[in-house]
Known about the structure:
The protein has 14 helices and no strands. The two termini are about 35 Å apart. It is mainly alpha-helical. The protein has a single domain, classed as Growth Hormone, Chain: A (Up-down Bundle). The protein has helices at about 5-20, 25-35, 40-60, 70-85, 90-125, 130-155, 160-180, 205-230, 235, 240-260, 265-285, 290-315, 320-350, 355-370. The radius of gyration is 19 Å and the shape is globular.
Amino acid sequence: MSPFLIATTATCALAIAMGIGRFAFTPLLPLMQDDGLLSIQQGGLLASVHFLGYLLGALYAGRLPFSPRFTLRFSLIAIGISTLGMGLTGNFYIWCLLRWLAGFCSALTLVLISNYSVKRLAELGHVQKQGWIFSGVGAGIALAGLGALAIMIWGAPSDASWQIFGILSLVAAFAVSVNTGSELPDQAPGKRVQSSKQSRLVWHLIIPYGALGIGYIIPATYLPVMAREIIPSPLIFGWAWPLFGAAAFASTLMAARLQRDYSARQIWVVGQVIMAAGLLLPVVYPHLFAIIAAGICVGGTFMVITMMGMKETHRIAPPADIMRHLAAMTAAFAIGQMIGPVFASSLYEMTGSFAASLVLASVALVATTLCLRIDPSPNPAD
């Protein structure tokens, strides 16, 4: 399979799994509120259920009993079905089940792509194309945001919006499934490394990566809601999410170039500090421009940090144990994501503002960057 096709199918897979499966909920949340279907607190609970699925998917990825190729195809189609299902019922408990399934399969997709596709491009000498793979998340977010903006202008209800996204993601999932090739094994992974030979988990990476989950998910869940509180017109606040996705798309391509001069760890630290500063902007200056600037700061760094975190894990962890390390990183990220929406919505109910949660998340991001100063030498097996 050619490097171009590997990169293209992996990019599309992440666009489906993350841009739609994971993040279509964000621009559609204001629509669901307008339709009287969800409160802020219910939206936070639904987001956290989704991220519980993401956490369990990450843990499951470390013990995969099926072939990676089958698992990726199943996950993408399940994401499409669960997205479509959100528009076919108004039952909150069924929504929880569907969002849980989408989260579970999103995590599987990210871990599989981060391991097999990224590694295969490196083996073929096309490391620069790794940035294109991770740009799929930003592209998916931007397209979902533009789609939601068009739907709001059109005046369609939220259930029709979910149905449109579901049908589009199913079509894309079938196209990716047909073109998934030899970079993903067609046999189940071999036996896991025995516990006596397992390498130590890289906690100095896991802790700041988990803080990233908390830091980015608050604006990634509530950014359009924050913008709508200031300017209710969808023609204006509706642009907050597409700009978030555009920043995520461009940043991964830029990060691939920065790696020529800087280490993955250095890029990670700077990205986390920029994100922390971005979270404070709406607190210091509660204006639409500050919210958009915060979206660009967060959108422009969260996938870069994800990309750098995965690369650092590949560099430090023993090859025979890499899936367990990637799963642990993704699980920490998922725990942060689970905490963030419920934490932010609870403080919002008490204070009527997202300011307190943004400040606390910013502090956590800056404090945990200190972990990245620990010696990054490769991790031997115990």
